[in-house]
Design brief:
mainly alpha, two-stranded antiparallel sheet
Length: about 110
Amino acid sequence: MGGGGGVTNIMVVVAVVLAVSSWLVPTRAGLSAAECHEERRLAVNACKSVLHVGVPSPQCCQRARVSHAECICPDVTPEVVAIIGDINRAIRLVERCGRRVPHHFKCGSITTP
C-alpha cells in the first residue's frame, strides 16, 4: 500500500470489501503481477464511493464479486486492519452487496468473527 492518505483510505476500504467477499470467486492458478495490479486498480476506481457515500456502488459490488483473493489479501496487513478498526462495518458493507460473509474466514491479517 502506498501513496497519500486518500489513496491509502480508498485501498483500505477496497481491501476490506474485496477481502471479505473474495472467498466467493473461484481462483485460477498463476495470476500475474500485472493482472493483480489491474484488479486492484479497477477496484479502487469502482469503490471510491464507499468513502464519500458510505455504501458500495453497484460497480463496487460487481468488482467485489469478480476480484481474486490472491490479489487482494496480500494488501490486508496489520496496518490496514488497525485503520479499519471495525471489521463488523466492513462485513455490513459486503452484505449490502448481497454477499454472505463466512465465519472465521482469513484474508491477510483479517479473520472474520
